[in-house]
Amino acid sequence: MIHQDRELHEECGVFGVVGHQDAAQICYYGLHSLQHRGQEAAGICCECNGKMNIYKGEGLVTEVFDQDKLKNLNGNVAIGHVRYSTAGGGGLSNVQPFVFRTMEGSMSICHNGNLVNANILKQELEDQGSIFSSTSDTEVLGHLIKRQEGHMIDRICASLDKLDGAFAFLVMLEGRIYAARDKYGLRPLSIGILSNGAYVFASETCALDVIGAKFVRDVEPGEIVRVKDGKLLSKTYTKDSLQDKICAMEYIYFSRPDSNLDGINVHTTRKLAGKQLYYENPIEADVVIGVPDSSISAAIGYAEASGIPYEMGLVKNKYVGRTFIQPTQEMREQGVRMKLSAVSSIVSGKKVVMIDDSIVRGTTSKRIVRHLKDAGAKEVHVRIASPAIKFPCFYGVDTSTIEELISNKMSVDELCEYIEADSLAFISEEGLHKSIHFDHQKCGLCMSCFNGNYVTNLYDSFDKANKFEK
Amino acid sequence: MIHQDRELHEECGVFGVVGHQDAAQICYYGLHSLQHRGQEAAGICCECNGKMNIYKGEGLVTEVFDQDKLKNLNGNVAIGHVRYSTAGGGGLSNVQPFVFRTMEGSMSICHNGNLVNANILKQELEDQGSIFSSTSDTEVLGHLIKRQEGHMIDRICASLDKLDGAFAFLVMLEGRIYAARDKYGLRPLSIGILSNGAYVFASETCALDVIGAKFVRDVEPGEIVRVKDGKLLSKTYTKDSLQDKICAMEYIYFSRPDSNLDGINVHTTRKLAGKQLYYENPIEADVVIGVPDSSISAAIGYAEASGIPYEMGLVKNKYVGRTFIQPTQEMREQGVRMKLSAVSSIVSGKKVVMIDDSIVRGTTSKRIVRHLKDAGAKEVHVRIASPAIKFPCFYGVDTSTIEELISNKMSVDELCEYIEADSLAFISEEGLHKSIHFDHQKCGLCMSCFNGNYVTNLYDSFDKANKFEK
Amino acid sequence: MIHQDRELHEECGVFGVVGHQDAAQICYYGLHSLQHRGQEAAGICCECNGKMNIYKGEGLVTEVFDQDKLKNLNGNVAIGHVRYSTAGGGGLSNVQPFVFRTMEGSMSICHNGNLVNANILKQELEDQGSIFSSTSDTEVLGHLIKRQEGHMIDRICASLDKLDGAFAFLVMLEGRIYAARDKYGLRPLSIGILSNGAYVFASETCALDVIGAKFVRDVEPGEIVRVKDGKLLSKTYTKDSLQDKICAMEYIYFSRPDSNLDGINVHTTRKLAGKQLYYENPIEADVVIGVPDSSISAAIGYAEASGIPYEMGLVKNKYVGRTFIQPTQEMREQGVRMKLSAVSSIVSGKKVVMIDDSIVRGTTSKRIVRHLKDAGAKEVHVRIASPAIKFPCFYGVDTSTIEELISNKMSVDELCEYIEADSLAFISEEGLHKSIHFDHQKCGLCMSCFNGNYVTNLYDSFDKANKFEK
Amino acid sequence: MIHQDRELHEECGVFGVVGHQDAAQICYYGLHSLQHRGQEAAGICCECNGKMNIYKGEGLVTEVFDQDKLKNLNGNVAIGHVRYSTAGGGGLSNVQPFVFRTMEGSMSICHNGNLVNANILKQELEDQGSIFSSTSDTEVLGHLIKRQEGHMIDRICASLDKLDGAFAFLVMLEGRIYAARDKYGLRPLSIGILSNGAYVFASETCALDVIGAKFVRDVEPGEIVRVKDGKLLSKTYTKDSLQDKICAMEYIYFSRPDSNLDGINVHTTRKLAGKQLYYENPIEADVVIGVPDSSISAAIGYAEASGIPYEMGLVKNKYVGRTFIQPTQEMREQGVRMKLSAVSSIVSGKKVVMIDDSIVRGTTSKRIVRHLKDAGAKEVHVRIASPAIKFPCFYGVDTSTIEELISNKMSVDELCEYIEADSLAFISEEGLHKSIHFDHQKCGLCMSCFNGNYVTNLYDSFDKANKFEK
Q1: Which residues of A does the annotation place in the binding site for [4Fe-4S] cluster?
Q2: CB spacing of B101 vs A56 below 8 angstroms
Q3: CA distance A88 to B349
Q4: Which residues are catalytic (chains A, B, C, D) (predicted)?
Q5: Which end of chain B has less neighbouring CB within 10 Å, N or C?
Q6: Per-residue pLDDT tens over the stretch C212-230
């Protein structure tokens, strides 16, 4: 596993393009730049004259697709998906996009996020005779759309309005793509335009940059957009009140530093969080180091604010891929450590500030602190660029169960002792908010994993989280 | 492609086992012995405490599964499938078994055959809100079962009774397998028992032999069986009249020579057909040769009846697999011919009787005759162990469109000239019937591809055959 | 392993083509048709303006090469090799062809056979400073050539004359191929010509047929040929006396039935051996069956001579490839048997004559007899189309050690009892000789594995056989 | 290709371990951490009771080896190699380690570097009858050792003393490893010790860290070491004068930032070079950015020295692997750019200082400058952390031909204009020297690619560079 050490997992990334003769290829490059959002599976579905050409498989985008497979994906409309996990027992049956076939035509859907009322909706659908071919929430939308009446846009809107939770949906049918975002804007979704006028939709703007698309704007909470005659049509699919509650962890952890979410650059927020972290929790030290890759920006911010030099005290092996043979327990005991190397010549004899983006179960932090001390660090002061995670996420982030969240069980002092650090501090919620919304453009963030203030009703999600077929 | 030269294609083979701790492995060996029925995809689904563990992929059984994948398929009930083709645009989404998930539990289904009223049923289901995730007929059964009421056995029976066409279905749920055969017995399905008392179901008896299972009996037309408390329970799922109309081409072409279908050995029927072919169409010649592999038995029969020696005048390269690089047109013109070699030292200067099992488009026969003449054969007399194929099959055999069936367009004399043979004769329908039912056990055979007397209503099948998404 | 049940193993097949723009492709098809001579590794080397383009790997020809790899092999001269085994500890380093590089140019060599004086020659070469990069005998020839003086043809001839043992060598350098056969003609080597005038060399004539080449003649024992200005030049490389002693097992076991060896068709000799076997060892029985694939011809011969019908009483699964998951011991005990199925409906209650080509360790025969009896055979009479193998082969056949040869330890009666047959008989040496040289063209055969009359001095081969690094 | 954009290429990395039961596994992890030194091929050779167990293949360490392959490599002594390129026409035949087999035993060798007198030595060896099986220089050492007399250590020393050029050699035989470095110390080679007392040798110290080995010391120029009875034995193999002339590009470009070369940390030298670059070539600007990954340290140094904030203005996609489908020309014209993204929100409207480690052909720099300007950068000032490369390297770095080195053809001003930068400056030789030898421990560096002062005679290397078979 590529990211086995990461303790938080985004569920997915989505990408779509409408009106380009090489739609599948554009999709390939777009998904490739969203690879950090999901490494376990990938799929692309292309529509050509009503026919859905689809290919999906387990592995990285570059592992799933080759030249031949891509060439077989004809059509000038395409949607694609990268998936973090194929857990759920269904293997490939849970890999997206999904295709739904009816006598009147086919529809393809992919989705980033998590629905909190999926079970309620599934039960209702089953009571009317529906059966499901996957354990994925995404299938629910297909069934709902089928059961509505009227124009397709109205059927989709009515269906979306029934959903509660976090989502960025792409629905492809009849040569069109419908792109929608949940009422709270929990998951990001951006719109871009290519030089030939083709519109693209992507979970992050880095995917727009990579394919040479110009950023147009973000899809708004509760909005559904589609392209008609080369123009972007917009509609609000619900009468519920809308909120700006994008997931804070998208900034601090999941997204690529070069992406802008709701107009705000990720690297910049991380660097500001690093500075804020210093202002809130200053320490005198010899060097600042960051845990690669996601904490580098924050570490540089901390260094700039403090005047303490930033150094590369931890180096990551970038060749750890799927086929890497894990060290046996015996090897590990002999000191084999593959992913992160602590650089002795940099930390030896030094007072080190170690910046990380988050602590989930605490085991990773504990191990890194030990590595640094083994490499000769005199003191290790841990500074975390997010508040303590005390509550599980139901919006598409896999944070393990509530019992595994160490900040739920330990005070900061206890945790400091547990990870064997010389001091430990988290950024405050206010500090994080200020780092992200430094320019006051937006005012909302979902911080439920820090404070338990969930932005939606949770229905049976707590139960489902525990009973779900794994 | 492994069998690219074959002009007829069976759609599938099915296998199931209930009550064995190594169910997935048993299934692997069973499917492996049914590999000749479908080389394009394979899948196994195992049930373990209500959870469906499934793996499927494109390629041969040995390519799709490895040790690790097999080990992950826990459970003591399993069904599996080999598929001839992934055509239909859906790629892996059409590979079986299918899994249907509901809040009350999961169900897995696989199927050999073809339903003639699938479109009518699909339309009815859609009108009630169903959507489909594949283009396969098999999904229809899952939807029907979901919409029935009462005990599971009654729901399945009521659903099967709605189906028209050819099928051998395996339905797995709640730790049980239900095995059913269509009302006409068009597709074969046999029952066996392992030494530990576990029951197995297989498209052909060769799969029973290979896993060391004892043959119990065949599933009867219109019958559904299941195992309860170690005993076989049987039920007729329909009040319609039942027929014995097993597909004649199963004997002459599709099945393995060591299989028995409805109690009759395949090799034996082929050899008898070869003898009958001689009695009906004798010729004086120097050698009898068969087109490998399926026509060898008939050729030996012809040789025995005629007293003309059987020789190996055509040799097939057995290493032509999926990754074989096809000769370019240029190479082919230079004489590169990979699959069949005509043996000059055997046929040169000889009057040759060439036995083949069937003629579909005529191009293969023409090519083989030319090979033999290039290798020095003085005369080539072609004898075909099946009657002329003049009508398309709607029961699970891919015979191309009616326009491509050369016997639909040419008389025997014209065809003889077209394939450049010195004489050509087909076995008569009566002769074939006699060869298969030599022991009078059974009295029916589906010969619709020879005479157009279809055993079912065809509904919209003719249209569907032409319009179907390929 | 594909042929794990075979108890005899040919070491290799060679193929070469000179003067064709698609030399590598021609080579690919040629090797593919020689695949039965070696399934463990394959390689092709092409010369283009003095540069050696080579690719080799473990696996079948179709597994080692793909379109891209083949395209990279530029040049209009090519030699290739299929290898039975990569044993010897060197892995890929023992896969042929070998390339030898010097400042004056490069040379590529491949080889079928085994040298009996390799160790002596290696020691002499080492004493002069040579080192070896493989454990293969083939390298010896390269070193010898390097150390001769004069014209290249003279250097090669002088080197070949130093070799003792069995070989068919192809040496490629300076745009030419030199093809040579040992002084006894132990290993076969044929010459063909393509329609464009390009000459080809192949271990068996089936490779000529497959690429559309016309058979020209066989290379003679002690002869070296090369093509100059489109003409075949021939030379005898030795003053030693020459013999016609082609390996008898090439006819009875290794070669493809459609090949002609020294002008004699393999299938024909096998069928004659089957007939002879009947004349020498008649038995009254109900059916004759052959062990597929190599014993089918002999079985048909036996059936024709005896008037007993030939039936397909044993069926082989043709899909057992490299990635096949072997049944566990437990599975095997439960009766899982993948490679050969005994057909109950054919043998049950019958007196069966089972024809096989050879008995080496006896375990396979024992197992097949048991299968047949389990399937209901009343009596099983085993007839072997070769004499009893009592001596190891030092000429390129891997017959295991002398201790493992069961006919070395048991009389025919004891062996009959051991394999649990009702009777057992081998063809006589005279009978085999007559079957092969039915037309009196040639008069010699190497039968050393039957009678211990080795055609060469053995030097240290007995020792080497036991001490050789495996 | 993973590193297709890199314009400089190190040839290899070597790793060895002596006296550990899991030698092959240790080697695997060691090589994995040296992967940045060569991504095209990898090999491991293990000695077990005189038998060489070897496996090698094309691709990354994780692609070449799997669990099974590693398990087959028995023995408690092992050497391994990663290789930058399989160029040379020999494919796998050039992949190291090499094994040389003689009647007295086997020897395995691997090598990082390049010999300048290889052709002279090869010619001498050939005149004595040697032939070569690869185009690699490494084979020369094997031949030389074979032709010496006396104790093995003396034979190896005498052979090494004949070599001129850059090298780190590992020679394994008789259960021992001999590790040697060239007389100038051009290529690095370090010694470490595991907790069980096993010694390891590695091109870089990062490989010691990763396997939990303690750094012992570097092998000295002209030194050969081996382990006997758990102790390190050292010998100087030459009477020539020795120099400290390690390759400057090892610091600035090739090595991992966490490695120490001759006791000096790579990241630290890079950061100092960045600072020095500022002192020599200051500029007022808004942001400093580095070209990932190798220029990040220098960029941070420049930022610290200048007080200009360091930002992540260029982001690299870390998932670009071997199977990545390259954009077509058409795609590229539409703006698809996969490897580096310029971050508009960071550079737009800004005066940017862009730090890179080197300029070879200039095309990469030109493209990055254009990306930054396309992303809105107002000005781009390029600062290079190495002096201008004007001369080819003959010591194991593939710098292309002299004609392709743009600094050989253009002045700094011309080059600035060519890459469309607003200003361009290189660090001075003195500045670089000072950055690396900041602590005055060592006094020599090979800077021949900057100033043409080659540390060795070049023999025919200039010619060879042009005539070498590619």
Answers
A1: 247, 393, 446, 449
A2: no
A3: 67
A4: 12 (nucleophile)
A5: C
A6: 999 999 999 999 999 988 8
Tokens representing D33?
């951490």
Strand partners for A167: A113
Return binding residues of D: 247, 294, 356-357, 393, 446, 449
Annotated catalytic, D45?
no
C-D Cβ pairs (cutoff 8 Å, strict)? 91
Active-site annotation holder among D12, D45, D157, D206: D12
* A149 vs D190: CA distance, rounded Å: 73
The amino acid sitting at C167 is F
pLDDT value at residue B93: 75
Is the Cβ pair A122, B103 closer than 8 Å? yes
Question: What pLDDT sits at residue C3?
Answer: 36
Q: What is the C-alpha radius of gyration for chain B, rounded to an integer number of angstroms?
A: 23
Do D57 and D43 meet the contact criterion of CB atoms below 8 Å apart? yes
Contact C29 B311 (CB under 8 A): no
User: Read out DSSP for A311-348?
Assistant: ---EEE-TT--TT--PPPHHHHHTT---SEEE-HHHHT
Task: Give DSSP secondary structure letters for C292-344.
Answer: TTTTHHHHHHHHHHH-PPB---EEE-TT--TT--PPPHHHHHTT---SEEE-H
Distance CA D254, CA D396 (A): 12
Smallest CA–CA distance, residue A395 to chain B, in Å, is: 22
Minimum-distance CB partner of C103 among D52, D126, D133: D126
Please state the φ and ψ torsions of residue C2, each to the nearest 5 degrees.
-70, -45
Residues with Cβ within 8 Å of C307's Cβ and at least 6 positions away in sequence, in order, are: none
| C258/B343 Cβ within 8 A | yes
Tell me the residues of D at the C interface, defined by beta carbons under 8 Å apart. Answer: 51-56, 89-93, 98-104, 119, 122-123, 126, 128-135, 142-143, 146-147, 469
Burial profile B267-296: b = 16 or more Cβ within 10 angstroms, e = fewer? bbbbbbbbbbbbeebebebbbbbbbeebbb
> For A265-292, what is each residue's pLDDT tens digit?
999 999 999 999 999 999 999 999 999 9
Say what percent of chain A tops pLDDT 70: 92
Pairing of strands B351-356, B379-384: parallel
Residue found by looking up tokens 């910049």 in the block: A268
* Both tokens assigned to A60: 């990285």
- For residue A462, the model assigns a pLDDT of 62
Three-state secondary structure call for residue C452: coil
What mean pLDDT value characterizes chain C?
90
Domains and CATH numbers, chain C: 12-242 (3.60.20.10), 268-316+339-439 (3.40.50.2020)
Preceding peptide of B257 cis, ω within 30°: no
Reply yes or no: is the peptide bond before residue A293 cis, omega within 30 of 0: yes
* Known binding-site positions of C for [4Fe-4S] cluster: 247, 393, 446, 449
Q: How many CB pairs under 8 A join A and D?
A: 186
> D98 vs C133: CB contact, 8 Å cut-off?
yes
pLDDT digits (tens, 9 = 90+) for A136-146: 888 999 999 99
Rg (CA), chain C: 23
Q: Which residue from C180, C259, C249 is spatially nearest to C221, judged by alpha carbons?
A: C180
Half-sphere exposure of D203 (CA within 13 A, CB side): 37
Question: Comparing B106-115, B440-449, C21-30, C377-386, which segment has the lowest mean pLDDT?
Answer: B440-449
Going by beta carbons, is chain A in contact with chain C, meaning 3 or more pairs sit under 8 Å apart? no
Q: Which residue in B has a C-alpha nearest to residue C21's C-alpha?
A: B331
Chain A residue numbers touching B92 (CB-CB < 8 A): 56, 92
pLDDT band at C1 (very low <50, low <70, confident <90, very high): very low
Average pLDDT rounded to a whole number, residues A298-327: 89
- What is the reported pLDDT for B335? 77
pLDDT at C89: 45
